[in-house]
Amino acid sequence: MPELRKDPISDRWVVVSTERGRRPSDFGSSPTVEGAGESKFCPFDEGNEGKTPKEIIAWRKPNTAPDTPGWDVRVTPNKFPALVIEGEVNRTGMGIFDMMSGIGAHEVIIETPNHNLNIADMEESHIDKILWAYKQRIVDLEKDKRFRYILVFKNYGTAAGASLAHPHSQLIATPITPRYVKLELASARSYFLEKERCIFCDMIRQELGTGERMVYENEYFVAFTPFASRFPFELWLLPRRHEAGFQELPDEERMQLARCLKDIMMRLKKTLNDPPYNYVIHTAPNSVPRPGKPDYWGTINYDFHWHIEIIPRLTKQAGFEWGSGLYINPTAPEEAAKYLREVKI
Amino acid sequence: MPELRKDPISDRWVVVSTERGRRPSDFGSSPTVEGAGESKFCPFDEGNEGKTPKEIIAWRKPNTAPDTPGWDVRVTPNKFPALVIEGEVNRTGMGIFDMMSGIGAHEVIIETPNHNLNIADMEESHIDKILWAYKQRIVDLEKDKRFRYILVFKNYGTAAGASLAHPHSQLIATPITPRYVKLELASARSYFLEKERCIFCDMIRQELGTGERMVYENEYFVAFTPFASRFPFELWLLPRRHEAGFQELPDEERMQLARCLKDIMMRLKKTLNDPPYNYVIHTAPNSVPRPGKPDYWGTINYDFHWHIEIIPRLTKQAGFEWGSGLYINPTAPEEAAKYLREVKI
């Protein structure tokens, strides 16, 4: 079973997946990519439903059975999960070290039966179905009291870590709240306690005011290059209205999110020649009920604000970034926003 | 001038180097590598001293002049610095955003005149001279009251971010303490306040006790794969004796460090077929004098412990890691240590 281990010095949890057990000879010159879309057989193509673990949910045409053709979006467990779904979260210590059994969910959201159709080129109504699948899975998994957090993410292109070319996203549910989310939560909390305002709402207001980093806005959503972008052409996408969790998004607003996502993905594709990218959804953590406190997070509904962080993978991270956590970004976000606004789509 | 910008939500500083100003067309399929050792001309080769900025220090043969041949190790400013050395650190705010002028030092330590000789294959006495250069530069730069921190790091191989093949390390002095170092400092501080012991010393004791993650030890130094390794074959190298700053290392112990470094670099090279890697030295931050307090860091000499983190670059970081700060390591550190211990060098 995989283990969650905590480094006592940096307070960082790591998943050590002993099952995968990669030995020195497993790390070739192109070590992390299995097939990478070159192989002719794709387990995510329509008709190959038997080659994936059994589907959990799918957006299906009427009268089609699970694990058969006829789906638009399909969610299955990851065949090579980083964390395992069966078991209890046992917590143990060993001297100064802490560990936990590697319990969690690891799922794949197959975004379309079409092997070559990516978000930038999909119909908005199809992107809406992908977002529907994200929401359904979060709503379902957050009922599992073993899990503290559900992270939805997408790797596009081998340079961004995608091991299969067929369009897909992933989801990992973990028994801990991941470090970056924790830092955001703590900082948003302390801002709220001081000012009685959401820091994300303040940021949206300031960005809409100056406009120099804005890339897209519609009635419900905005997208801009953040002031302290770590990476060239980094983008954040947020709901204009204050909302702590992605899963709270009303169905009637989801189409607007699909429109926003498609728009900025097309802009990235045109501006940067179809770059590899990652995106992650940062939503509020699962609430942890405590005796006499129905919601451990208390003011969470006021102080956190879900958002999507989109990172084109254009630069390599070197020793300085790894060692310091201080990023060097060679493209000012104001410049990046200007290119993205002005590109013809 | 480059800018240091702070993201108010994650409390993360970023260097936005507007001068380099990379536009969309600058990001090709292999964007970050200039030449990467394929070009015939190398500015770091002996005889080409005129092609680098003027040397700051060098370990030289007697009666040789600066910026001429006759050196063993040579330090110069980086020709394309991420931060600039001239100017004051002006701090400004803009709504919820904070920024600082991008003042700092960015230097290159050319490790040898030999274009193809890397640490694994150098004489120990030569590695000693490289370590001497690191120390000299830290001791000199920490006198500059504008700087809070000096980070020495090395990128080996293009996959690790090296832009020139000639063996070299780098150093960046910054007006802020980088985020990861800050987290380590805070955690070591709170451990010391609770237990009156250094957390690193405790970790060394525990690792020597179990032995399962040990790779190398001599009279003064140890190297092991950390319990919560983020990456396959990650290694930490620490002085056995408690010591806060790398620059405090007595000259007579430096040769033992050279021996330790050479040993583990040879083991990495043999075990993993000469992998790309990064290393960084985490030392105590420059002390910041305050009125009535000669050393702002107070107990720093007791609670921090310098070390070198070595990261072979064998796996790609994907969306999950970027989005969460939670790493998935497919090789247990106990396994990695076993391979490294048993390889013939």
Automatic annotation (TrEMBL), chains A, B:
<dbReference type="InterPro" id="IPR011146">
    <property type="entry name" value="HIT-like"/>
</dbReference>
<keyword id="KW-0299">Galactose metabolism</keyword>
<feature type="region of interest" description="Disordered">
    <location>
        <begin position="16"/>
        <end position="47"/>
    </location>
</feature>
<feature type="domain" description="HIT">
    <location>
        <begin position="199"/>
        <end position="320"/>
    </location>
</feature>
<dbReference type="InterPro" id="IPR005849">
    <property type="entry name" value="GalP_Utransf_N"/>
</dbReference>
<dbReference type="GO" id="GO:0006012">
    <property type="term" value="P:galactose metabolic process"/>
</dbReference>
<dbReference type="GO" id="GO:0008108">
    <property type="term" value="F:UDP-glucose:hexose-1-phosphate uridylyltransferase activity"/>
</dbReference>
<dbReference type="GO" id="GO:0008270">
    <property type="term" value="F:zinc ion binding"/>
</dbReference>
<dbReference type="Pfam" id="PF01087">
    <property type="entry name" value="GalP_UDP_transf"/>
</dbReference>
<dbReference type="InterPro" id="IPR053177">
    <property type="entry name" value="ADP-glucose_phosphorylase"/>
</dbReference>
<dbReference type="InterPro" id="IPR001937">
    <property type="entry name" value="GalP_UDPtransf1"/>
</dbReference>
<keyword id="KW-0862">Zinc</keyword>
<protein>
    <recommendedName>
        <fullName>Galactose-1-phosphate uridylyltransferase</fullName>
        <ecNumber>2.7.7.12</ecNumber>
    </recommendedName>
</protein>
<feature type="binding site">
    <location>
        <position position="307"/>
    </location>
    <ligand>
        <name>Fe cation</name>
    </ligand>
</feature>
<feature type="active site" description="Tele-UMP-histidine intermediate">
    <location>
        <position position="168"/>
    </location>
</feature>
<feature type="binding site">
    <location>
        <position position="305"/>
    </location>
    <ligand>
        <name>Fe cation</name>
    </ligand>
</feature>
<comment type="similarity">
    <text>Belongs to the galactose-1-phosphate uridylyltransferase type 1 family.</text>
</comment>
<dbReference type="Pfam" id="PF02744">
    <property type="entry name" value="GalP_UDP_tr_C"/>
</dbReference>
<dbReference type="InterPro" id="IPR005850">
    <property type="entry name" value="GalP_Utransf_C"/>
</dbReference>
<keyword id="KW-0808">Transferase</keyword>
<keyword id="KW-0479">Metal-binding</keyword>
<feature type="binding site">
    <location>
        <position position="184"/>
    </location>
    <ligand>
        <name>Fe cation</name>
    </ligand>
</feature>
<keyword id="KW-0548">Nucleotidyltransferase</keyword>
<feature type="binding site">
    <location>
        <position position="282"/>
    </location>
    <ligand>
        <name>Fe cation</name>
    </ligand>
</feature>
<keyword id="KW-0119">Carbohydrate metabolism</keyword>
<keyword id="KW-0408">Iron</keyword>
<dbReference type="InterPro" id="IPR036265">
    <property type="entry name" value="HIT-like_sf"/>
</dbReference>
